[in-house]
Amino acid sequence: MQNKWGIKKIAETLGFKLKKQGNMYDCKETLRHVMMALDGELTQAEEKAFLVHINQCSPCLEKYEIEKSFKKFLTEKLCRHHVPPQLIEQIKSRISGIAGS
Question: pTM of the entire structure?
Answer without folding.
Answer: 0.54
